[in-house]
């Protein structure tokens, strides 16, 4: 076994970001325990890792207490629906995984004496009144709006993580991840990049919400994973924004996807979802200063890789 460092637990490891994290951790010589219920993840995301003796897939709902054998250095807690389509379909489950699931993941880290990383989100800033968003901003979240099941679950997770760090001595850190995209996002996941790519490749109209002037800042998944691992390896408590500071309107994203795919799809304007944030761009000064990290993949290149994966055989390893 090439076990050069201790084991890492990745909750939500069979999801989009989690599968890339597991892959990178294995490549770096870690033993990996991937704990996932497959609520929104897929076994095929990690199928190419199953042969590795250092990779262990545990099918479990983290809302119930869970355990892994042996020593654990890090618990990276990603388990949670993440796409608006998913969390609106699973509202109570989303709140439960943010509360019970995060409690169980923190308890595991406490028992094992492990570093804990919470995969929080830019959604804690809600529809932000500060732009770009710095970690010091407290956010503008509607606590009873449809998105609150996700936003407030993550805000509770942040509070719980802080309490375990300050009062129970868990070495914990909060990462606030901004919109991340790349191969292995599911077509039906509803998020903007896989939706537009799927529509462009199928020659269907690209469904732009509102007038498409709202902005997002897209970070390629390999960059996000690198930022998360650097943060986990640091001794900083966070929160730290992990995202790309290149901001695009949704209409610009649609144009880029059309251009890269060479599609003749038209644009169909659809209703803007309730409480859809108008702008979103991270201030990543803290990540740059603390971790020496900033994303390196240009959006056009990352989108091209995503298009190739969605248009081609979707071989998980081909994108490694
Ligand atoms: P994803 O849906 O692909 O992955 C989430 C994983 O968690 C899935 O494999 C799912 O099966 C698993 N899961 C959900 N509930 C569970 C439960 N109760 N027990 C065990 N496993 C469970 O989403 P993703 O985009 O990979 O997001 C991963 C994490 O990163 C999430 O916590 C999300 O909030 C956070 N995040 C992602 C983004 C992004 O743009 N992708 C942005 C901000 C934050
Ligand atoms: N969006 C869109 N068409 C779609 C899906 C999403 O215009 O088919 C918009 C959505 O309204 C939002 C942006 O794209 O303004 C990003 O949406 P996504 O669901 O990817 O992430 P989030 O809203 O959580 O940032």
UniProtKB/TrEMBL annotation:
Matching CDD domains: UGD_SDR_e
Alphabetized InterPro entries for the sequence: Epimerase_deHydtase, NAD(P)-bd_dom_sf, UXS-like
Domain NAD-dependent epimerase/dehydratase: from-to ranges: 9-243
Co-factor requirement: NAD(+)
Protein keywords: Decarboxylase, Lyase, NAD
SUPFAM superfamilies per the UniProt record, alphabetical: NAD(P)-binding Rossmann-fold domains (SSF51735)
Name of protein: SDR family oxidoreductase
């Amino acid at each position: 076994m090439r076990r050069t460092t201790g084991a890492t637990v990745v909750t939500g490891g069979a999801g989009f970001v989690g599968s890339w994290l597991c892959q990178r951790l294995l490549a770096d010589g870690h033993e990996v325990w991937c704990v996932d219920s497959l609520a929104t993840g897929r076994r095929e995301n990690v199928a190419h890792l199953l042969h590795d003796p250092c990779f262990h897939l545990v099918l479990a709902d983290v809302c119930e207490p869970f355990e892994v054998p042996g020593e654990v250095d890090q618990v990276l807690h990603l388990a949670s629906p993440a796409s608006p389509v998913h969390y609106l379909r699973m509202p109570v489950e989303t709140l439960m995984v943010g509360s019970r699931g995060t409690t169980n993941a923190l308890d595991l880290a406490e028992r094992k004496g492990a570093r804990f990383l919470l995969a929080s989100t830019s959604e804690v800033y809600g529809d932000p009144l500060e732009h770009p968003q710095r970690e010091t901003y407290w956010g503008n979240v509607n606590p009873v709006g449809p998105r609150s099941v996700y936003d407030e679950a993550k805000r509770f997770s942040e509070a719980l993580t802080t309490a375990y760090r300050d009062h129970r001595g868990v070495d914990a850190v909060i990462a606030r991840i901004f919109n991340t995209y790349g191969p292995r996002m599911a077509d039906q996941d509803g998020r903007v990049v896989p939706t537009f790519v799927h529509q462009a490749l199928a020659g269907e109209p690209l469904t732009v919400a509102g007038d498409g002037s709202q902005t997002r800042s897209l970070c390629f998944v390999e960059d996000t994973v690198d930022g998360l691992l650097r943060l986990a390896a640091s001794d900083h408590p966070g929160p730290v924004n992990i995202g790309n500071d290149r901001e695009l309107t949704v209409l610009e994203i649609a144009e880029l996807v059309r251009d890269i795919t060479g599609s003749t799809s038209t644009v169909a304007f659809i209703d803007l979802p309730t409480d859809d944030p108008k702008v979103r761009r991270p201030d990543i000064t803290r990540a740059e200063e603390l971790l020496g990290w900033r994303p390196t993949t240009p959006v056009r290149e990352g989108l091209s890789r995503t298009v190739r994966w969605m248009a081609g055989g979707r071989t998980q390893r081909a994108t490694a």
